[in-house]
Every structure is written in structure tokens, then in C-alpha cells.
Design brief:
There is one protein chain. This protein is of the alpha/beta class and 225 residues long. Helices cover 33% and strands 27% of the residues. The strands form two sheets. Strands 6-7-8-3-9 form a five-stranded parallel sheet. Strand 4 and strand 5 form a beta hairpin. The longest helix has 18 residues, at 181-198. 42% of the residues are buried.
Length: 225
């Protein structure tokens, strides 16, 4: 039976809007296993990006528990202080790969150097960075800079960066949202193919119903708040 990589129990998150308290995430519970994939769907403002931010520690929940990649963060036991901040930072560096809508590459470094940097920050010394560029179909552009390649090639390089760190889980926020349909389908093919081969977990926030349908499970956060 696959190991559980993410467990979320009764998660809650509120924001202040003037005098009003807006509950964005309300008593949310789910699990994702290794090699599993879950699409997070819902209209703009429904909390998709907020949920991903909670799952990588960029925001802290108001209530509930998150267990991810072997670490537990429970608001009922006061694990939201400096120790939790350090633990989240270590997880993001070593075990949680994050993919954004726009490729987050260092402009002064080649695609290969970007991948090498991300692997190094994660403490990975396998030396397989070029392999991941090959897996994502951009090995021929390895020595080019981000502004010398297309948007689709930059996004594939961003995926190579994530896989080179050998993460336990990938959090992808609209990873094909800025690409044309054909390029988006190609990038998605590469993402799911390599995710399946590596066995890491995937949580993907998207408006794209066709992309969401490729995941094992889905979580509908509903309408805007």
C-alpha cells in the first residue's frame, strides 16, 4: 500500500477584509498518497492558491492539522512558532517542489545551471540534472538562458528543477495556465509522465477541467468567497 504523503484534517483559514472576516478554507480534510495525484478546482477566489500556500508553509492555518512528508503541524498544539517556520523552510528546500504559472528561473543562469542550483539547494548530489532536462524535452536548450527559449521550454525547465530535487510532493499552481493549448498539453504530458515514473505525489490547482481529469482524485473548493 502506498505511503501517505499528505494528511489534512479540519483545516481552516480566514482573512480580514475591512471589518469582515472571510473564511477561505473551512474544515477541510483529505489525504494524498505517494504516486497519487489530486486536482484542486474551483472558481477564482475559492482558495486554491491559499491551500497550496498552506501546504508549503508560506501561510499558516488558523485551525486544523497538516502532516506532510513525515512532519506534522498542528495548530492545537502550538506548532506555528519559530520552530514550525524553520521546519517548513527545510521541507520546501528538500521535499516540496513548487511549480508556478510562470516559470521561476534565474535569468542570469542557463537552464542547466538553474536545475543544478535547485538540486544543490535540496542537498541532492546525484548529478542527474541533465537527465531531467532530457526527460522534460529541453536538453537541447540546456546551455541557453531563460530569455532565449520559449515559454513552454521555460516551464519544462521549471519542472526539471523540481524533479531534480527528488521531492516527496509537487505542488503545482496553474502550471500550464500561461501556455497555449498545444504547449500546455505537451507540458502536462511531461509532468504526469515523470510524476508517474518517480512516484512522487502531486497536488495541482487548476481551472482546466481536462487537466484536472488526469488526476486520480479531485477536490472542489466551490465558488468564490
Amino acid at each position: 500500500m502506498p505511503d501517505t504523503v499528505v494528511t489534512v484534517e479540519q483545516l481552516g483559514k480566514c482573512f480580514r477584509s475591512g471589518a469582515e472576516t472571510v473564511r477561505v478554507i473551512d474544515r477541510l480534510s483529505f489525504e494524498v498518497a505517494s504516486a497519487g495525484s489530486m486536482a484542486v478546482i474551483g472558481r477564482s477566489g475559492s482558495g486554491k492558491s491559499t491551500l497550496l500556500n498552506l501546504l508549503c508553509g508560506l501561510e499558516l492555518p488558523d485551525s486544523g492539522r497538516i502532516a506532510i512528508a513525515g512532519r506534522q503541524f498542528d495548530t492545537t498544539h502550538n506548532t506555528a512558532g519559530p520552530d514550525a517556520t524553520s521546519a517548513w523552510a527545510a521541507l520546501r528546500k528538500q521535499s516540496i517542489g513548487v511549480v508556478f504559472q510562470e516559470a521561476n528561473l534565474m535569468p542570469a543562469m542557463t537552464l542547466l545551471e538553474n536545475v543544478q542550483l535547485r538540486a544543490s539547494l535540496a542537498g541532492k548530489t546525484a548529478g542527474d540534472e541533465r537527465h531531467w532536462l532530457e526527460q522534460l524535452g529541453v536538453a537541447n536548450e540546456a546551455n541557453r538562458f531563460p530569455d532565449q527559449v520559449s515559454g513552454g521550454q521555460r516551464q519544462r525547465a521549471a519542472l526539471a528543477m523540481v524533479f531534480a530535487m527528488h521531492p516527496a510532493i509537487i505542488l503545482a499552481d496553474e502550471p500550464t495556465g500561461s501556455l497555449d493549448r498545444q504547449t500546455a498539453e505537451d507540458v502536462a504530458d511531461r509532468l504526469f509522465e515523470v510524476q508517474r515514473d518517480t512516484g512522487c505525489a502531486l497536488i495541482l490547482a487548476t481551472h482546466d477541467q481536462a487537466l484536472a481529469a488526469r488526476c486520480h482524485d479531485s477536490l472542489d473548493l466551490g465558488g468564490s468567497h
